[in-house]
Design a protein that fits this description.
Elements (H helix, E strand, L loop, with lengths): L18 H8 L14 H29 L13 H4 L2
Length: about 90
Amino acid sequence: MTSSQLPLGSPRSEAVPFQFVAEAERFRSNVTPPARQRPSLSQVASRTLVGLTVVAGLAGSLLFGLPAMEAGPATTGHSQQSEASQGR
């Protein structure tokens, strides 16, 4: 159906490549979707527990990982030598 074949008063004036696209714009449903169920108390508690576990894991990894990532000053007066080289 081209724009010249559309009936007068049609909301669309340009050509539509697929007929179902034009049909979908005119379609209105009178069926309402069912209401969403509220999560139960156990579902809310389990979701909260999972969230807290994830946050605690991230915080723990940050606490344990930050000291290892610090560049810190090198210890003065101590050079790395093996015990075998000290006896010479």
